[in-house]
Amino acid sequence: MITSRKSLLCAGLLAATVASGAFAQAPAAAPAAQDPSAAQAPAKGPRGREDRAQRFEQMKQRHAQHLAALKEKLKLTPAQEGAWNTFAQAQQLPPAPPPGARMNRDELAKLTTPQRLDLMEKHRAERSAMFTQRADATRTFYAGLTPDQQKTFDAESMRRFGPDEHGGPRHHHPAAPAKN
Q1: How far apart are CA 15 and CA 25, in angstroms?
Q2: Is residue 100 helix, strand or coil?
Q3: Over the range 100-112, which residues count as b (16 or more CB within 10 Å of their CB) and which as e?
Q4: How many angstroms separate the CA atoms of 88 and 23, rounded?
């Protein structure tokens, strides 16, 4: 059972990683020189984090870059372009929630435990449906790749599970000494 969960999780993370490059854009022109005093710091929210909308845009850009890099490495044929476009479309990130769409702690505190559980179950079902869509699109696209392209796809998707990536260790601790 754990193996199938890991496989499902790996497939989902693979799909999300591959989807990250769907919004590939032409490079923007270099910004005009600005007076350093005129430059504004990014908007900070509570806890000193950047604004959610700004973080979401950055995430979309990274997502687009990852997909563009994958497409380049796969060296797709013109016949595979249609399958790629379908795959990339399925990997798109959902739209950012509008400001204030998330419930705050006070609103959640007013709900009863069964109501909160229902809300969590609803969100889980939404995420599960999105994952299923991405996983199905990934399987279909993968089936249309040549064996060499499949190897590249596999290698690129496993890179996302390495150090400093989602699913991999972020802190490097020395290995514990072996017990005698």
Answers
A1: 20
A2: coil
A3: eeeeeeeeeeeee
A4: 9
| Burial (CB count <10 Å: 0-12, 13-18, 19+), residue 56 | middle
- Weakly modelled stretches of the chain, pLDDT under 50: 1, 18, 21-33, 35-39, 48, 165, 167-168, 170-172
Tokens describing residue 102? 């998330």
Q: Are the CB atoms for 145 and 154 separated by under 8 Å? A: no
Judged by DSSP in three states, 44 sits in strand
- Strand segments, DSSP code E, in 79-156 are none
Distance, CA of 74 to CA of 33 (rounded, Å) = 38
Contact by Cβ (8 Å): 141, 83: yes
pTM > 0.70: yes or no: no
Q: Is 10 exposed, middle or buried (0-12, 13-18, 19+ CB in 10 A)?
A: middle
Q: State pLDDT tens for residues 101-148.
A: 777 788 888 999 999 999 999 999 999 999 999 999 999 999 999 999
